[in-house]
Design a protein that fits this description.
This protein is mainly alpha-helical and 146 residues long. The chain contains 6 helices and 2 strands. It has one domain: Arc Repressor Mutant, subunit A. The protein is globular and about 50 Å long. The two termini are 34 Å apart.
Amino acid sequence: MSETIGFLLNDSARLFRRAFNARTKGTGITALQWRLISYLKRHEGIRQGPLADLIEVEPITLSRMVDRLVESGLVERRADPTDRRAWQLYLTDRAGDLLHAMRRTAEDLNAEATDGLTPAELEQLAELVERIRANLSRRECLKEAI
């Protein structure tokens, strides 16, 4: 094999982001913003700090992204009832509609990227990549504990 698994996965992710951004150009939403919105769907009420950790961006970068999404009417900040200095993030109804449309775009892109793979190959690919992710997550957790 001429390329490492890490290179192939990273390059594939880059190509996914580029293709996704091209398909969603008219919406004003980037792949990273869509990822943020997707995480918020699963973790509504999360504070900005933990969300920045989840999507692996600097807190100031996340703050700017959230500012843009608030201005677009997709995200709202609400005061945290347990800490007056903190804000919790929530999706608006408009974001829910956008998520539905973007999910369809993502599904179409996934179908294009995996064209020619059998259902068994798709399942095996997902299992193998999940195992890689679990291995790396476990190592990161171990490093943080030290």
